[in-house]
Design goal:
Blueprint lengths: L1 H49 L3 E2 L6 E2 L8 E3 L1 E6 L6 E7 L9 E7 L1
Parallel strand pairs: 2-6
Antiparallel strand pairs: 1-3, 4-5, 5-6
Length: 111
């Protein structure tokens, strides 16, 4: 009688062990898949933000000489008036032409 109880307990423990392994076998690949999808989403978001021209921190600020940093936070810098001939320095942060409203005009004021 005691021997049957011991075998039943061993069987239950082995069953739980097998069940645990099966749960891990399913859960681990799902976790890896979701992590990869999350990284892809973040990568795509970074790609989209880099395709838009965004004026940097120099925009609207006063400078005694032409600003050289903080011009564009996104896109490509294109000077439209780097000599401040009208009293201000003007540039464009050009984004991807296939994205609507992807470029922005930026201005820094001359002291």
């Amino acid at each position: 009688m005691m021997r049957n109880v011991i075998f039943k307990q061993k069987g239950a423990i082995n069953g739980l062990l097998v069940l645990s392994v099966l749960v891990l076998a399913v859960a681990l690949p799902v976790s890896v898949y979701l992590t990869q999808k999350n990284q892809e989403s973040r990568s795509n978001a970074a790609d989209e933000s880099s395709s838009v021209g965004v004026c940097g921190s120099s925009t609207g600020e006063y400078f005694s000489t032409k600003p050289t940093s903080g011009l564009c936070d996104g896109g490509t810098l294109i000077w439209t008036d780097e000599n401040a001939s009208d009293g201000d320095w003007n540039w464009t942060c050009k984004g991807d032409p296939s994205v609507a409203d992807s470029s922005n005009e930026c201005t820094a004021l001359k002291k």
